[in-house]
Amino acid sequence: MSVRLADVIEVLDQAYPPRLAESWDSVGLVCGDPADVVDSVTVAVDATAAVVDEVPEGGLLLAHHPLLLRGVDTVAASTPKGALVHRLIRSGRSLFTAHTNADSASPGSPTRWRRRWV
């Protein structure tokens, strides 16, 4: 079953309210079009190249640790993080992070949720 990314974001924001994030943290949608359809959700601790390769085209990567935090002022494809963002966008994949907001929420971080239910 496919759902809009906006609907998935709504559920994630209810489970992991952005208001619970520390002031220094970066949470929420990193890349992706909320109007797009999402066919799958892949949960990971970090958004790495190897993890992105595992996300099906048109899928959402729910990462615990933010890809873009402090000190990032470009997503040029010539930088490691920029290259990853470009790969995600070109392949129709989306990235959403839930970090300190997930740590503070119940049922906790997506990685703990995954360990408990998978």
UniProtKB/TrEMBL annotation:
GO CC, alphabetical: cytoplasm
Region (Disordered): 99-118
rRNA processing among keywords: no
Gene3D superfamilies with a match to the protein in the record: NIF3 (NGG1p interacting factor 3)-like
Biased composition range(s): Polar residues: 99-109
Binding site for a divalent metal cation 1: H65, D103
GO MF annotation, one: metal ion binding
Keyword annotations of the record: Metal-binding
Binding site for a divalent metal cation 2: H64
PANTHER family: GTP CYCLOHYDROLASE 1 TYPE 2 HOMOLOG, NGG1 INTERACTING FACTOR 3
Quaternary structure, from the entry: Homohexamer.
Protein family according to the UniProt entry: Belongs to the GTP cyclohydrolase I type 2/NIF3 family.
Protein's UniProt name: GTP cyclohydrolase 1 type 2 homolog
